[in-house]
């Protein structure tokens, strides 16, 4: 299923108040919003409030049958949050009135572009991981995501010792890098 189809399913689920869709949107977007607000004179409570307001906007839009999203949900939510936060900063007068444009203080376009690039890189890495095959996929997952020790990995995968498991992990990483960078060059 393509990213666009997944996003459309999330929007449809949001319109129907589907709990898993709402949770997925939160899970995939809240961290970047919190980071943005904390880096721009806000608090965690501010981030929660702004994100919740953006979710209400997105929910209302998703219920509108004429609404068509022409970007990723992440980009749309970020844009809403950015505007809401800048508006709140103006209301709180955190910045002097001498500043012509708050855009100069908060370089949003750069952040969105950087975030989109990082998102693309994650998708490429996910695709490379799906192509790497077993036991490499499970071994890398055990080490990097599950944070297992080399001794545990050696026992789980049947290697004679931790050094052999480490050597295999290195070979798997080399394969993964080759797959990733071959896709990266083509993207």
Please characterize this protein's 3D structure.
The mean pLDDT is 82. The relative contact order is 0.08. The protein has two domains: 1-106, Rna Polymerase Sigma Factor, Chain: A, CATH 1.10.1740; 121-187, Arc Repressor Mutant, subunit A (Orthogonal Bundle), CATH 1.10.10. The protein is built from nine helices and no strands. The protein has helices at residues 3-15, 19-38, 44-63, 73-92, 102-105, 108-132, 136-145, 150-157, 162-186. It is mostly helical and 187 residues long.
List keywords for this structure.
187 residues; mainly alpha; Rna Polymerase Sigma Factor, Chain: A; Arc Repressor Mutant, subunit A; 2 domains
How is this fold's topology laid out?
Elements: H1 3-15, H2 19-38, H3 44-63, H4 73-92, H5 102-105, H6 108-132, H7 136-145, H8 150-157, H9 162-186
Helix pairs in contact: 1-2, 1-3, 2-3, 2-4, 3-4, 6-9, 7-9, 8-9
Structure, briefly:
With 187 residues, the chain is mostly helical.
In the CATH hierarchy, what is the class of the largest domain? Answer: Mainly Alpha
Number of strands: 0
Q: What is the multimeric organization of the chains shown?
A: single chain
Largest sheet: none
Strand content bin: under 5%
Overall mean confidence score, pLDDT: 82
Overall SS class: mainly alpha
CATH architecture of the largest domain: Orthogonal Bundle
How many structural domains? 2
């Amino acid at each position: 299923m393509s990213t666009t189809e997944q996003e459309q399913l999330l929007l449809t689920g949001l319109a129907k108040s589907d709990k898993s869709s709402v949770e997925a949107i939160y899970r995939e977007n809240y961290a970047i919003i919190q980071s943005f607000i904390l880096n721009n004179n806000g608090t965690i409570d501010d981030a929660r409030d702004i994100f919740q307001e953006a979710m209400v906007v997105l929910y209302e839009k998703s219920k509108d049958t004429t609404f068509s999203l022409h970007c990723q949900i992440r980009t749309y939510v970020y844009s809403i949050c950015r505007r809401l936060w800048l508006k709140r900063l103006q209301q709180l007068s955190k910045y002097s009135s001498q500043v012509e444009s708050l855009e100069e203080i908060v370089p949003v376009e750069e952040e969105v572009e950087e975030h989109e690039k990082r998102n693309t890189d994650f998708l490429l890495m996910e695709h490379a991981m799906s192509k790497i095959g077993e036991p490499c996929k499970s071994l890398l997952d055990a080490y990097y995501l599950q944070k297992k020790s080399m001794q545990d990995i050696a026992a789980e995968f049947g290697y004679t010792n931790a050094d052999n498991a480490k050597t295999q992990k290195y070979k798997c990483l080399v394969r993964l890098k080759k797959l990733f960078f071959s896709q990266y060059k083509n993207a």
